[in-house]
Amino acid sequence: MWVLVFFDLPTETRTERKTASRFRKNLLDDGFAMFQFSIYMRFCASRENANVHIRRTKNSLPKKGKICIMQITDKQFGMMELFHGQKEVEPEAPSQQLELF
Description:
- Helices cover 34% and strands 29% of the residues.
- The strands form two sheets. Strands 2-3-1-4 form a four-stranded antiparallel β-sheet.
- By secondary structure, the protein is α+β, with helices and mostly antiparallel strands.
- The chain has one domain: 2-Layer Sandwich (Alpha-Beta Plaits), CATH 3.30.70.
- The protein has three helices and six strands; from the N terminus they run E-H-E-E-H-E-H-E-E.
- One of its GO terms (molecular function) is endonuclease activity.
- Keywords: Antiviral defense, Endonuclease, Hydrolase, Magnesium, Metal-binding, Nuclease.
- Pfam families: CRISPR_Cas2.
């Protein structure tokens, strides 16, 4: 499973910028990687593991802005076509993660 978090957060005031930065930092601390500036993704070994990270993300939602959390399978993620300019690039393979229970 892949968990993707899409967001559009206000950044007009200093407080809003700080809140947006804190939200991005929380995603990074939870193992998400930046796909684009407002899209973060994380590979999860199972649906149960994905639900844990979704719950953590929901617990750190800012009061303002738009946030979308989407789950897709590894197969669906593998069908994504990525381009840098007009040059097609291969998607990154999921990183090996060791989880301790």
